[in-house]
Design a protein that fits this description.
The chain is about 40% helix and about 10% strand. It is of the alpha+beta class and about 400 residues long. Helix 3 crosses helix 5.
């Protein structure tokens, strides 16, 4: 009986024979002859095995078992479409993936065969994105992440022998800068906003909520006795809602986080009481969202929303930003150092920055705003460094050498 072919790898990983965690993720391969033609095939489920283990697996393959050939004509466009069809993510994320593939990745890589994409080509492409002044750094980073996910999936499914993105640094993304409003500017925005909507920016700078979360505030999430705001809803206007504003019991960070509690300052409680007297909340349907379910398949509930448009609809960001926010910024003359108008999200940044600069523990702030501590540290590391000035002396004193106490005997 003829011996099975010898397994090998074509990758350049230094630990390909004894992979460690985070090391080589490539499958072992072997050569075989089919209909008189020599071809290359992958050993099934051989990722993470040593060469001896992969060879034993191949030797134990029953005779006549169908091999897993490395498809030679599979294009990036074909596999990207297959990869996209298997994603189980939110519709917003799925839409971003589809746009990145259709608008940017397919025109660049679509017709190219997966097995012909080389590391040098990928590095050149990354350089092209960095040199393209019309392409924002954050957009290039998004394209790069989708490209990485598609090729990693192709490798794990045995469609390519090695991943050309391995050990390739993605596009450079500079440190993002956000505008921090002064207290005078926050209150000027509140005073300038139309009375029906002036509470919305106040929820931003007083509680650090996101824009869609501020739109979705209802009367049942406000605890006046304890001074707490429970954030568990947002107004979505996406493809799945047929681009109509819809109240959904879901946060941006779902399913990791279902709700978050944020303290409400006394001035906000007073403003809410005044607002609800002048503009009573209206009843509307809300989607009781469940993980991995489409919105149409979820149960419906009811809630009384605080904010409505003049036409009796829930607010959407396009109307709010174009007709309310931007005109207010222009009228007040609030701009950043580069002359750009601050966004509503900068109110959230202002809240977080103010809390951290005043010594509130980062894990407490993270719980209030619904971020992880790691994410908070990445985004606001420059503010956490400022704590050295305020707490550094105390920390240094804890480990200082104890002073010797000399006790003299009485004569």
């Amino acid at each position: 009986m003829a011996r099975k072919p010898t397994v090998y790898k074509r990758c350049e990983c230094s630990d390909q024979n004894r992979p460690k965690e985070g090391g080589c993720h490539h499958s072992w391969e072997y050569n075989l002859t089919v209909d008189g033609k020599r071809t290359r095939a992958s050993v099934p489920e051989s990722v993470g095995l040593t060469q001896a283990q992969a060879q034993a697996l191949l030797d134990g393959t029953p005779p006549g078992a169908a091999p897993e050939p490395v498809e030679s004509n599979l294009t990036f466009r074909q596999w990207a479409a297959d990869w996209l069809s298997r994603r189980r993510v939110k519709d917003t994320s799925l839409e971003k993936y589809e746009i990145a593939i259709r608008v940017h990745l397919n025109p660049r890589w679509g017709r190219q065969r997966l097995r012909n994409i080389k590391k040098a080509q990928v590095e050149a492409w990354v350089q092209e994105m960095e040199d393209n002044e019309k392409l924002a750094n954050s957009t290039a980073e998004g394209h790069w992440k989708v490209f990485q996910m598609v090729l990693k999936d192709a490798l794990q499914n045995g469609k390519i022998a090695s991943n050309p993105t391995y050990e390739v640094d993605g596009p450079y993304v500079g440190e993002s800068t956000s505008y921090v409003f002064t207290p005078d500017e926050c209150w000027a925005i509140y005073d300038e906003f139309p009375e029906r909507y002036r509470l919305i920016p106040m929820f931003g700078f007083a509680c650090g909520v996101r824009q869609a979360e501020a739109f979705a505030v209802c009367d049942d999430v406000i605890d006046g006795a304890q001074g707490l705001l429970t954030v568990r809803r947002q107004v979505l206007r996406i493809k799945e809602t047929r681009y109509r504003p819809l109240l959904v019991d879901r946060l941006k960070t779902s399913p990791r986080l279902n709700s978050k509690n944020t303290p409400m300052p006394p001035y906000l409680l007073e403003a809410v009481a005044e607002h609800t007297q002048r503009f009573p909340p209206r009843s509307t349907k809300t989607v009781m969202w469940e993980h991995r379910k489409k919105i149409d398949d979820c149960k419906r509930g009811s809630a009384r929303a605080l904010f409505w448009s003049s036409r009796g609809n829930l607010l959407c960001r396009n109307h709010f930003n174009d007709d309310l926010w931007k005109p207010t910024m222009l009228k007040l003359g609030i701009k950043d150092e580069e002359g750009n108008l601050p966004t509503f999200h900068d109110l959230r940044h202002t809240f977080i920055s103010t809390c951290l600069q005043n010594g509130i523990p980062e894990h407490t702030v993270a719980a209030w705003v619904g971020d992880s501590v790691d994410e908070l540290r990445r985004t606001y590391s420059h503010l956490l460094k400022d704590h050295v000035d305020t707490h550094g002396a105390v920390a240094a004193g804890l480990t200082a050498r104890p002073k010797l106490t000399i006790v003299r005997n009485a004569a």
